Amino acid sequence: MADEDEGNEYRWESGYEKTWEAIKEDDDGLLESNVADLVARAKRKRAALKATGATQLGMMRHLFVVVDASACMFLQDLKPTRFLCVLKLLEGFVHEFFDLNPISQLGILTTKMKRSEQVTVLAGNQKKHIEALQQLKDLSCEGEPSLQNSLERAMNGLKNMPVHSSREILVLFGSLTTCDPGDIQKTIKSLKDNNIRVSIIGLAAEVRICREIAKRTGGTYNVLIDDHHLKELILNQVQPPAVAGSMEASLVKMGFPGGTPSLNGGTSDSSADHAPAYCLCHIESETSSLMGHNGYNCPQCGSRYCELPVECKQCGLTLVSAPHLARSYHHLFPIKPFIERAQVPEATHCFACAKPFVEAEANVYECETCNQIVCLDCDLFIRETLHTCPGCASDPVKAQMKTN
Amino acid sequence: MKLNVDGLLVYFPYDYIYPEQFSYMLELKRALDAKGHCLLEMPSGTGKTTTLLSLIVAYMKAHPLELTKLVYCSRTVPEIEKVMEELRKLMNYYEKEMGMEQNILGLALSSRKNLCIHPSVSKEREGKVVDGRCYSLTASFVRARHAADDAIPICDFYEGFDAHGKEFPLPPGVYNLDDLKEYGQLKGWCPYFLARYTITHANIVVYSYHYLLDPKIAEVVSKEITKTSVVVFDEAHNIDNVCIDSMSVKITKRLLDKCSNSIQILETTISNMKESDSKRLEKEYKRLVEGLRDANIARETDMALVNPVLPSEILEEAVPGTIRTAEHFVAFLKRVVEYIKTRLRVQHVVQESPAGFLRDIHTKVCIDRKPLRFTAERLASLIRTLEISDLTDFSPLVTVSHFATLVSTYTKGFTIIIEPFEDRAPTVSNPILYFSCLDSSIAIKPVFNRFQTVVITSGTLSPLDMYPKILDFHPVIMTSFTMTLARPCILPMIVSKGNDQVAMSSRYETREDTAVIRNYGNLLVEIAAAVPDGIVCFFTSYLYLETIVSSWYDQGIIDQLQRHKLLFIETQDAAETSLALINYIKACDNGRGAVLLSVARGKVSEGIDFDHHLGRAVLMFGIPYVYTQSRILRARLEYLRDQFQIRENDFLTFDAMRHAAQCLGRCMRGKTDYGIMVLADKRFSRADKRSKLPKWIQEHLKDTNCNLSTEECVQTCKRWLRQMAQPFSREDQLGISLLTLEQLQSEEMQKKIQQRAQGV
């Protein structure tokens, strides 16, 4: 699987690599600087991909994930099988997805035996999806997949979603063939008309029709190299995409349920709010239990939920908490990429981690706004995880002035 | 961009150039400077056409006296159209850069069928019918008759052209077939004759091989092309076969029966004419006495019947007395036909030389060599005199007359083979007389002698040294270019054994072996499971394809295959095959995926490109040796051995490998394309076969991929396909396989190009 300790494929499985050809001696006949340079370049390259400007992003996403469950998913070129590997990675994806897109919804479909089956409906509750994914593991993979059937089904689920939301389909496609009942070109056209973006991740090789679907609907099409690459590709889908074409900006009504009831001294502080009640998200399952005072009440209809974000089952209001929105915020305003520059004698240590710079690291990185200098590792950490510059954060006044 | 090619300013209509295109220009310019012939191999999809055109046009502009005309010969109408599009692009670029109209006239020429705009004639589908009907509307006597009697139909477009077209030449520009038609409609002139007339003063002429190689047509169409021309044969890997076909004749029993009918028609027409208009026959007789030299004057439309030999030998002399009068000639023809009929009545195969044939015909029916030589010309003259306007019925007789003329003209380089039955059906009597040309240099020799530079080029010409031998010429430049690639976008592999370690081969001894057939089947099934979209397979012959498919059917391999992809099969029927092709393309476009089983040397292997998803993999099952039991082939091999010191095996391997390379090249149509090439035969890994593959394929054929089993092959495919599927943009190519002007001019790149040019 994608775990680090399992490593890459076995040496005898991979091709014959001439690793020595990538290495060249520097002027002194040394190799060290060269290696460091190679490593740094690879890291930067990855980070640079994410540095996009402030475009309109589809923050409110409705995404259908289509998982191929045809016979070819039993192949073992991903360990233990393609299907299990994909499911495992999808669990991680679902988690990350809701973490970064709190006001979005997700649904899961599978396709096999020339048909498409719904696993979960569009919903904002990640637990349910993860449970469903875990149950899928016992599914037997057989027959051929049908792209058209799955896309049609996903489209039916998506096309009634509000116009301001981003409608997306993600297909994990292991097969090299699709067995369709009709003309798939018509399906592509109606997908396009409905403003649905289809992204496809191929597990084996480039299939022409997938490339065409992705290209015409504005999605991406990628084919994996190995399981690490697959993980990366799947996680790339977590980032909200830029808005395609004519999606109108509109105001969305949202509810912010109060925090823990005991601290909530506001207007909605009525005794009913704190009375023990069934959580609405678990009310159908047998394990549902009476909740105590904890939970979140919908400010519109008062129904109670154990977890946010969620769409209220009673009145359809989207319930979020302020931190959720704040987390989405950095997508809109990514920090500017740091400038790569040669090491200067004045800066002796990294501003972020306080590690002294060593000779081997030729380059350091400078924030445009606060002019603080950080090392490569911190640069990546800031970009990928922190999403805020420690220099600017420690001196907000100056940073504010600069940005304005 | 503007390039400096060895001191010559070349306008190149694109912003980027491949390094090998530049090298190609360098070599081509050298050949033009030396006024010699050259042989250039460059992979398909690297922009051969545009490179050729831009260099030669630049050369014409720079040296207008030394090089006046470009004759570009291509094989099919779509290819001709492609060349015209490239030329148009180039001319537009010239206009944009120079800011004025260019004084260059380029046009395409094709048969009447493709150019006719006559309302009813152009509706005909078959080329021969169109030619015949055109002749019946435009022949000189028909027009003369029309002058007397308005009721006789003529072609208005031809009349329009005849009245005005010759005085007003076509304005400079680029005319493809449709443009010519449009222009013809506009002016009311016949586009076909306009084009034929314009050839003499056009700067660039694009037409089919046959207009230059086939002496029957060449003399009529191409005789006035000046010596200071450059002739380009594109896709010329089969040029020797084209030469041979144009000089060979095949006579069957049925054909002879039709001849007898036509002779009867001739007889009745002659006797009718004798009663009504004996003067005309007398006039013809007198003319024949004077010789044929002026016979062709003012008779351009009468070209439907022409002489198959190079005429200087014949036209000097007067027609011999024995066949001067019409009746005598018809009786003579009758004798010839009857003689051939008796020759066909054999029980065993006969092979003899033209000299032997002549001796035999002399002793048996007292026909001399000399009158035989004039048969074709005499028949043409007779048909003209008799004013027979419907020519389609006479084509069998014309064939026989060609045969008579050829057999008496050439004593060397030809052979006559009479087979009483086909090898495949020895019980069915089906006698055929083959008059077969063995020496491909005969037809092309006048081309080499006449023009100062002849360029022979194709994607697959390896091994290069064979062509000068079999075509008997001395090239000044002989170069094979490789393809510079930013990623390894072809994956040639030699699969020599199945998973059970049984060697795979289409050798005659193991051909029927079920283990071999099963292994071939498994290979295809596994590749079909690993490769997306389209897969094209080539077999060595239709017969082999049929046996293999039927045993695959029994072994259940077809069922397995259809789980992954749809299956299409090429047959000898052209309509069926094109239907299969259409559906193949549809299946690939829809993502269902398809496998096409076809035959090397068939229609699919020659003319059709499987670019991008249409051909992600090509499988070559066995080495496509030509059918070695054929007597014609054996006669040719013998001749090649005696005359050119080419060993039989060398020629057979050369021929097989060029067809294999041609098949493999189907899947690579450009630098963004990628494709797998699987050679499934043990014998491919031998050095004599491997080294005969084109350089651009050899370069990617690693030693590790030369002796694979099915499983190893599939593993390699899978890994490679994933790599190829990674995003690939123009930026990745820039500087390596695609150059801007600055990059091209950089010292480093110039050095590399020089090295490449010298290295070969």
TrEMBL record, chain A:
InterPro entries linked to this entry: C1-like_sf, Ssl1-like, TFIIH_C1-like_dom, TFIIH_SSL1/p44, VWF_A, vWFA_dom_sf, Znf_RING/FYVE/PHD
Highest taxon of the lineage: Eukaryota
Protein name: General transcription factor IIH subunit
Family: Belongs to the GTF2H2 family.
Protein's cellular compartments: Nucleus
Xref: NCBIfam families: ssl1
Higher taxonomy: Eukaryota, Metazoa, Ecdysozoa, Arthropoda, Crustacea
Biological process (GO), any one: nucleotide-excision repair
Keyword Transcription: yes
Entry keyword Transmembrane helix: no
Record keywords: DNA damage, DNA repair, Metal-binding, Nucleus, Transcription, Transcription regulation, Zinc, Zinc-finger
Annotated Pfam families: C1_4 (PF07975), Ssl1 (PF04056)
Encoding gene per record: EOG090X05VA
Source species of the chain: Daphnia hispanica
From TrEMBL, chain B:
EC number: 5.6.2.3
One term of GO molecular function: hydrolase activity, acting on acid anhydrides, in phosphorus-containing anhydrides
UniProt entry tagged with the keyword Cell wall biogenesis/degradation: no
Cofactors (names): [4Fe-4S] cluster
Domain Helicase ATP-binding: 7-290
Alphabetically ordered keywords of this record: 4Fe-4S, ATP-binding, DNA damage, DNA repair, DNA-binding, Helicase, Hydrolase, Iron, Iron-sulfur, Isomerase, Metal-binding, Nucleotide-binding, Nucleus
Gene Ontology biological process terms, A to Z: hair cell differentiation; nucleotide-excision repair; positive regulation of mitotic recombination; transcription by RNA polymerase II
Catalysed reactions, semicolon-separated: ATP + H2O = ADP + phosphate + H(+)
GO cellular component, one term: nucleus
Record carries keyword Amino-acid biosynthesis: no
Main location, first listed in the record: nucleus
Cellular location(s): Nucleus
SUPFAM superfamilies: P-loop containing nucleoside triphosphate hydrolases
EC top class, as a word: isomerase
Family: Belongs to the helicase family. RAD3/XPD subfamily.
Name the UniProt record assigns to this protein: General transcription and DNA repair factor IIH helicase subunit XPD
Organism of origin: Daphnia hispanica
